[in-house]
Amino acid sequence: MIDCPEERSTQHFRGRWCGFGPVRDYESVVFAVFESTKRAGSRLAADSFDNNHLKKQAQSLARKTFVTKPVFRRTIARGALLHGIAVANVSSMRALVADVKLNARDVSVRSLCVLDRVEKGDCDGHATTGYCESHTSLGMSQSQLNKVRQRIRLDLADTFSDIKDITAHGWPRAFGIFRARVASIVSIR
User: Cα separation of 21 and 187, whole Å?
Assistant: First the structure.
């Protein structure tokens, strides 16, 4: 399976020593579910995710271990009215594959990358997900690419937990995040 090279390094706007380093497989991420987010009952739907954000590898997530509830509300939800949150394991997201039918063969390609992408105004525990570039280079028609991406969004929705109230989540405390920050600096060396 083709790797996403951007996953191996931080994408923090201030550089390598800032934030928490690359998103690790054992981590979980939190998706903000707004009142306007399309849903399938108590679950996310394929249309819960913004196709344009996924194309740019910019679908916003919070790294569960590194974001407190007030920081999540302020920098991820940005003050918008939340319906709830959904949580997914990063290794499950990275394990998603898309089966693509090409002329004479079937190909399985990795669906998504999960990046430590922190831009100005984001919290240090911000992450993003988006389509792996591997499936865009296969020479599919736009129609076929759109169908593959629809299936990827559906698989992504299935990877997340039921939507739950923001207060039902076990948010970390600020001191725990400070210790995790120190540990991430030591592990980068």
Answer: 9
